[in-house]
Every structure is written in structure tokens, then in C-alpha cells.
Amino acid sequence: MASSVANSFSGLKRADDAVYTGSKPCKFTQWAAESSSRRSSKQRVRLAGARSQGADVAELQTSSSGPLLVPRQRYCEAAHKTIRRKTRTVSVGGVTIGSEHPIRVQTMTTTDTTNVQASVEQVMRIADKGADLVRITVQGKREADACFDIKNTLVQKGYPIPLVADIHFAPSVALRVAECFDKIRINPGNFADRRAKFETLEFTEDDYEKELEHIEEVFTPLVEKCKKYGRAMRIGTNHGSLSDRIMSYYGDSPRGMVESAFEFARICRKLDFHNFVFSMKASNPVVMVQAYRLLVAEMNVLGWDYPLHLGVTEAGEGEDGRMKSAIGIGALLQDGLGDTIRVSLTEEPEYEIDPCTRLARLGMEASRLQRGVEPFEEKHRHYFDFQRRTGQLPLQKEGEEVDYRGVLHRDGSVLMSVSLQQLKNPELLYKSMATKLIVGMPFKDLATVDTILLRELPPVEDKQARLAIKRLIDVSIGVLTPLSEQLTKPLPNAMVLATLEEFSSGAHKLLPAGTRLAITLRGDEPYEELAALKNADATMLLLNLPRHDEKVSRVHASRRLFEYLQENDLNFPVIHHLQYPSGTDRDDLVISAGSEAGALLVDGLGDGVFLEAPDHDFDFLRTTAFGMLQGCRMRNTKTEYVSCPSCGRTLFDLQEISAEIRDKTSHLPGVSIAIMGCIVNGPGEMADADFGYVGGAPGKIDLYVGKTVVKRGIAMETATGALIQLIKDNGRWVDPPKEEE
């Protein structure tokens, strides 16, 4: 069929535009030719190319019967402001999901599903916290039978909250539980395909057709039952559990995730069943964001309008888990994508509701106000594949007395604000900046703050405070101070922070020649004001949009600035500077920072983070900033954990074991450890981890290196020690640092 698509979807104008193939971009015509030779033409989308039809539309020849070949295009309603994506309404019991309704929040029980009383009590606690839906794992017939009792008991107790059955590997169980639960979540990677062995498979055209026919044969009865009983469905792809068939053809990629879901969606549509939502979850926020964008982009071409369930899977616990979720979910909400969300934490499920609600509130507010900036043309941002725009790091200039090359870090920088009061106790300040101390002298370490801002300089006669600052400058830690301070109380070798207005006025010319300069700006200034940057020799830009500006979006203002910089070949490093007022809640700060700055860093836009909040201590702000960089896959300063949130399948106490493993391994920056309660997503999510600790059987642990199991059936009592030994055997262990006296 022929479909007309707005020309605002960039890339539909020329048949040879680049497309995203999962592993690397290639030319559209090249990809179409290669694809046609690899699979049967009956199931492959036929694209005749994109013919321009004037300024407003381009024609795309396609077929809804097979996999997609879609050129690059936009994935959201607008590039310059938040407009919520329009969707159909999906009904789950008494709850409606879609763009005409609030963003719904949900979580998942951790109890044994056959323990009806414990499951009912946990669902009631979750509902009391404000959840709209609750998911329960249903792995076998016993669990399916228990679901009837759980549902009936909750209704009798006055809790009609919709229940969602989580299904893996068990089509017959899905059919049973569809008779009582309101929604069925199926995983396309394991509903009809065999468990992934991470083998590369070769398919003839007939073989692939038979695989698709098998999926339809297995899946159709569930679709028919959902239609009969008025149930909803989530087609929930997990990056960690793609089938060998999908990975062999599309790679372990966002495109493979989308195609895996679309195979099932086409069957639903063929059977005239539309009461379903999509999800594209991954433990890596960057992969997760790319997968959802590609999903929506392809739905736009086909004219599909199904709602989205958002989530970063296996996010972990505490602030790290909240930050990863805020980065992934928040980035999509800023673009108006997302209709129901879950924050997956290795904590009690009722604790997930609060950060979930905060994110939903941010998303609803952004779309209600349609926060943004004046329209601008976006040419340079990569929507579907990560390509970092790296600013030019400081170079040493002839005649400079100190080394400025360390004031920014190539993998992402952290800036912090320091007060005169903190300078009164230099050693405490140095420790809080995470420097190494040798005889009281600071030296840079892996997670040391790169640059500090002194809004007020100590008097020239305060020798002790100035010596404390000099010792930082001597080890290549940057010191920034406002232009007015440097003019009145000069500090040798300090960098000067000037507003764009001050720079444009030439006030900086009052400084000694060669003074290092940083410029702070909002990002939404008129282009004639930004033009002053073309004549700047700035060490960095600080992007700081005041929080009281309700109509302007930090994300869109920042994208506009980056577009301007790239269009004019200006390669200044850009630091995301976020200032929070007194009274800002700790979780609000984490969620907000992840949603705003993280949404930019996952696109490679930015070179660092600077968080300020008067109510919060220095250590919290520093670790939150470093956590954001690590969550965006930039600067790795601590052990990375891929930790599932637990469910009824979990074979050990995840919270207890996670705490034990973290206690013994948290000093291994650059090492990634997966802690998985069961095998469902274990090996796949461990594609993103170096080592894996996975529940293989009750009381038994399997250990992995990457996706490969290397030890099976280890008694849980000795499994943590065996994991440490495995890390040592692979040359990744270092002894923890000794505590300083």
C-alpha cells in the first residue's frame, strides 16, 4: 500500500538516505538490496523508495504484512517542544492507558505467586501507595490457578486494581490466566521461540517462513482469548531475551528489539485485536531510548498508534537505580513519549511507586505546558544511534604557568560549587572532592571533581584559603570564579566565568591577556546574541536555564544550542549546569537531573554535569553527578551493577545478596556485574556485564563470564566468594584501598 508521510520525518526525501540497521548505518538502497536477498520477499517489506511530493509530504511504498525497512525520520511530534504523542486508548480492567489519559504508574510483586495471602497483602500495599496496575509473575499451572484466588480475594477486600500476568516460555499458562487477569504481558523473545543459546543461526527463505508460521500458530489462541474476555496485552521486548533467530538476522540491537515485537503485533492486527501496548526494555538506558525511538518512528510510517509502556529493566537500587530510570524514561517523556511507566528497583515494590509518580508528574507537566523553545531546524542530532559530540578539551598554551589540561575529563566532567566556609578546612574539602591525600596534599583520583566554582574569592590577605586553592590548581583541578570577583580580588591562574552578556560587552577584556574564560548562557538566546560565541576563545560553556522559567524546556533549549554550535563549527565543551532551589527533595533532584541532563547525554550532547542545591551535602551532589555520567555510559568511576528487581521467579533474596556483593566488589571501577534472580533475562542482560551471578535452582547459583556460564550449581553460601575468585581469575580484581587514618 502507499502511505503519505509528512516531510518533517527527515530522511524520507531521498531513496539513498542512511538507515539504522542495528550495528551500523548503511545506505537505504544498499540495505534494501541486501535484505531482499536474505529473506523471503513474501514477508519482507517492499519499499519502492521515497518520492518527493513537494514541500509537505513524501510517498513511501510499504506493506504491513512484513518486516520494515524504514529510512531515518523523526520519532516525536516536535523537535522544539514537548507534545504528547497521540495514541489510541487501551483498556486494562477499569484503567485506561493512552494519550487522552494520565501517565499510569505500575510495579510488580516479589512474592511467591502460589502464596495467595502474601501476594494479596503486597498488592494491597502497592495499591495504597498509588499504583494504577500491578504485575504478577505466572510461570506455571499452579501459579495460574492461584491467580484466580488472588483476584477474587482482592475484589472482596475492595481492591479492584487491574492485575497483569507476566508470561515467559508458557503459552498454555497465558491462556489459563487470561480468564481472570486484566492484561497479559508476553515476551516476544521467548513466547514461541526456544530459549536463546546465543548461537548464530542460518535460515533459508522457507525456514524463516516456517518460524513465522509457528509463532502465529502458538500466539493466535491467546489473542483470540484476550478478544473474547476483553483483556489487554503488552508486547514487551527485553534487550536481554531476544531469540537466537532475531539476533542472527538483526543483531543484538534496537532494530532487532522492534522487529521482535512487530512480528507479534502483525498477528494481533491480522486478528483485529488492538487492545495492546508496546515496551522496549533494556538495562542500558542508551539502548532503551534508541529502541523506543525506532519503534515509534516505524509506527509513524505504518500509521500505528499503540501506547507505550516505558521502563529501564534491571536498573538496580538506591540512587543509581533511580538515576538510570530517570535517564531512560525521562528522556522519552521529554519528547512526549510514554503512557504507562515502571521504575524497576531491587527494593520492595511499593518503593517503586514514588519515583514512578515523580517521573509521571514531570512528563505530564511538560506536555501540559508544552515546554520548549522557538521552532528550529534540527540537522545534527542522532536519534537512533549514539554518536557523541565531544567538545575540544583544553590544550596547553605557551607561557601558561599551570596545566589546564585536567580541568575537564575526556569521558565527562563533574563541576562543583565550593564556599569560603569549606576553604577553612582544606583537608575535609579535598576528601569531599574525592582526591587522594598524601601528607595532607591533594592529588587527582578516578572520581575526583574536575573543576570547582568559587562564587566568592577569599580576601587577598587570607593566605591559608588561597594556599588551599593553589594546591588544587597545582594538580590541574580547575578553579572558576565570576568576572567581578577576579577583577576585584585577583586569584592567580583562576579561570573566569562570564555571562554571555558580559562577554558580548567586552568586559572580559579588562582581565590580563591569556586569562582562561568560561561563558554561562541559557541556550534559548536569540541567534544574534549567540553569534558572539563565534569570536570566543572559551575553555567551556556552562548551560544554565533558570528553573523558574516554566514555559522554556531545558532539553529543547539545549538541543537548540548544540544545533547552533554544530552548524557553526564551534566545538566548545558544554557543561550542563542545574541549580535547584532550597526545599528541593532528594529524589526530585535525582529524577529531575536524570530527566533533563541525562536526556541530552544519552544523545551524546554534553561534556559534563554541574549540580547545585543549597539543602544537599557536597558528597551527595558529587556522587549523583558521577552516577549520571556512568548511567549515560560515559565516565565509569565505580562498579556497574545490572540488578533485577525480583519477582515470584526469584530463587534467592535479591536485596540481601545484592548488598553482600556490592559490599565486597564496589571498589572495581570498569567492572560490570549482573545479579539476576532467575534465568529469564539473565544471559541476555549479561551481554552488558562482565560477570554474572544468576539463580539457577533453589539455593544454587550459576556464574557467568559475559553470556557464557562457567560454573553451575554453586551453593549460595559460597557463591559470593566464587564470584570474587572468578573476577580474580579473569584479571579484573584489585584489592580495596586501605582506609586512611
Automatic annotation (TrEMBL):
**Where does the source fall among the domains of life?**
Eukaryota
One MF term in the entry's GO annotations: iron ion binding
Q: Which GO terms describe its biological process?
A: isopentenyl diphosphate biosynthetic process, methylerythritol 4-phosphate pathway; terpenoid biosynthetic process
Q: Would you name any one GO CC term?
A: chloroplast
Q: Which of UniProt's keywords are assigned here?
A: 4Fe-4S, Iron, Iron-sulfur, Isoprene biosynthesis, Metal-binding, Oxidoreductase
User: Which reactions fall under this protein's catalytic activity?
Assistant: (2E)-4-hydroxy-3-methylbut-2-enyl diphosphate + 2 oxidized [2Fe-2S]-[ferredoxin] + H2O = 2-C-methyl-D-erythritol 2,4-cyclic diphosphate + 2 reduced [2Fe-2S]-[ferredoxin] + H(+)
Question: What EC designation does it have?
Answer: 1.17.7.1
Q: Where is this region: Disordered?
A: 30-63
| Pathway field | Isoprenoid biosynthesis; isopentenyl diphosphate biosynthesis via DXP pathway; isopentenyl diphosphate from 1-deoxy-D-xylulose 5-phosphate: step 5/6
Q: Which part of the chain is the IspG TIM-barrel domain?
A: 87-356
Q: Which cofactor does it need?
A: [4Fe-4S] cluster
Pfam families in alphabetical order = GcpE, GcpE_C
Q: Which family does it belong to?
A: Belongs to the IspG family.
Which NCBIfam families does the annotation name?
A: ispG_gcpE
In Swiss-Prot or TrEMBL terms, this protein is called 4-hydroxy-3-methylbut-2-en-1-yl diphosphate synthase (ferredoxin), chloroplastic
Which organism was this protein described from? Adiantum capillus-veneris
